[in-house]
Amino acid sequence: MITIKDIAARLQVSPSTVGRALADDPRISAAMKQKVQEVAGEMGYVANRAARMMRGVSSNLVGLVVPDIRNSFYSTIAHALSKCLEQEGYQLTLSETDDDRMTELRQIRELSSANVAGIIIVPSAKPHAETIRLLGMTPHIQLLRKHAALSDQWFGIDDAQAIYLPTRHLIELGHRRIAYIGSLAELPTGAARLKGFRDALASAGGACAGIEELGAPGSREFAQDALRRVLTLPEPPTAVVTGSVLHTFGVLEELLDSGVSVPKQLSVAGFSDEPAFRWWGPGLTTVALPVSELATACGLWFVHRMKQKVAGNAPYSAISPPTLVVRGSTQPPGASA
Amino acid sequence: MITIKDIAARLQVSPSTVGRALADDPRISAAMKQKVQEVAGEMGYVANRAARMMRGVSSNLVGLVVPDIRNSFYSTIAHALSKCLEQEGYQLTLSETDDDRMTELRQIRELSSANVAGIIIVPSAKPHAETIRLLGMTPHIQLLRKHAALSDQWFGIDDAQAIYLPTRHLIELGHRRIAYIGSLAELPTGAARLKGFRDALASAGGACAGIEELGAPGSREFAQDALRRVLTLPEPPTAVVTGSVLHTFGVLEELLDSGVSVPKQLSVAGFSDEPAFRWWGPGLTTVALPVSELATACGLWFVHRMKQKVAGNAPYSAISPPTLVVRGSTQPPGASA
DNA sequence: ATGAAAGCGCTAACAC
DNA sequence: GTGTTAGCGCTTTCAT
Question: SMART domains from the entry (chains A, B) (predicted)?
């Protein structure tokens, strides 16, 4: 392995001169820098990160902490961030939490000890106190979910709107009994989505009844069960809105299995716009979320923040708006479609 | 930050004793180890990786190098590996190549200089010579694709079989003109899949004509165009087999857009089993690939290999078998289904 | 404008 | 069984 010393020996100068030249120190003559650059390139010098880190410089590692990378939401984010950060010489590391606070803590511990440059995290519902403490010592940005005790830097979507839009759409179509199958309110996103649902109902001035089924956002089974429950109610809803990607998958599966006719018997609105949603039955009406753009914005901001020497702790929030994509799965109640 | 010295000072012993106790060195008394463990835990000691790495120990980073994490194939792999490696204290880093050899080279350079413990890679078609050289210096395992110049350790699926099965299935249904829309033969997987297609045709003893359309495995557009071309042939095929996940997506989209009736006008068999394939039209006949199992096996092997002090370079290949999942999209030609 | 030297936290060879 | 010491490659005073 070529070290700074080797270059120094070759150029008959001291290691510190080479170090400074490489660091573009203003005290070094342009001529010297030139020569050092040349020889370094020629000899194939690669800086030893470990040694740098020992001197307090943080690594080029950026930790991405998400519930489950198989969720297209998060793989989209990973892709966009990876692209963004790679250009600036950062390396993305992947940690999955399963939405479990203890797993989350372990991962954060791991990242702290690896001296990561920063962490981009989709926090769990109730991060452990130690998690909060550790994150407090590391530059971090929250994605999608926003926990009050963590960084004031956050990139998310307008979750309330993401549910308000489809619910409102159904109300306008004339539905008066609407079910919402979505995430627990203990998650900040869950709470906002639920609020979106309730606000939309309220906008109908009490004319419209809501049925709420809340469960873990990662559980497809919960959504299947919930739909079954809701459909066997004495007065079943005429429409259902889902509040997470996996809940949408669960509901779609269950509808196929149970042979409910959509939109004739039931209108359905989904969450997030997977390519396959176009195919489902008559096409699934859904809210499209600018996840990729959001992640890119987050990545750019992260890089920007890292570049300024001073601690860039200024609060910053970016809220991306969802858009409604209307397809065949929503119709006026009892329409003969 | 708590260091080994702090613990030593507190216990009135030398730093090396503490270091050895922490490393479970046989020369240290059990009593001492006990005390050190205790105090370390109490003081919240976290080993400084940078310092360790400076002493030549490789990092706990494992590089995962894939074309695109948004592909469910690769996110499934990332998930399984992450689970496996995390338990052993490894941290997974994510690098995307876009199937571009220069990007791949950059990523591998990055990983080498980060002193990763190992690399798990889905290599591009023709890795750069430098990529091969660098990988030669790092423990690595090939996943899915196998390049001859790289490690002899490889975990993949039986690609030939993955296309043979659906093609044979179509032949048995009575199809005599079958199109294959799949990956370029320059990729090892592409070549194997194409072979599977041809072998299946050959098994029909010349009774069956094949139409081949080969393109980049990551290009949905290619598949859409290819399907369009194939369907406007003077003698269009009565069935189509796809040879990559994204090609399948492309074909399915195009079929919806063009209003071709499946399986009446055309039978279709897909690649890999995405949840949404169940929903597509009459349900998509497809080959299920044990990707998650494969990745887990790879992860276990990696850990095993890292554990033995000696260079574990013994060649090892594991080939996982695909299985055919028959749904409504394949029927005898001209069936009134 | 450049050099010398100390030291980051840890490990390992060498004492005792 | 435990202590001493040197040194990994780099940055960073402090000299010159």
Answer: HTH_LACI
